[in-house]
Write a structure and sequence with these properties.
mainly alpha, 0% strand
Length: 95
């Protein structure tokens, strides 16, 4: 993602973060939230970002907790509810 040892490639980073996130890696989940929020290699989606922050926070990632709180001030309660629903669906699919 940061181009250490290779060219910076956010799309490739997103692919690898997805693989790690699906294994429950909270750092990868946080990174996907950040990438979704800031449109880095993937489409901007604040709902998707909030979902990943929720999952990462549940995995113990403190940065995700702060990011989720900050993003929560900028999105609607409907968007938060959608993100929570998506996070629950993700949890069910990855048990």
């Amino acid at each position: 993602m940061n181009g250490q040892g290779a060219a910076r490639d956010y799309a490739a980073a997103a692919k690898w973060f997805h693989l790690a996130a699906d294994q429950g890696n909270a750092v990868a989940q946080y990174n996907l939230g950040n990438m979704s929020e800031n449109e880095l290699g993937i489409s901007k989606s604040l709902v998707e970002a909030y979902k990943w922050y929720l999952l990462a926070e549940a995995g113990g990632n403190r940065l995700a907790a702060a990011a989720k709180l900050n993003l929560g001030y900028r999105i609607t309660s409907q968007q938060i509810a959608e993100a929570e629903s998506q996070a629950n669906e993700w949890r069910e699919a990855h048990r």
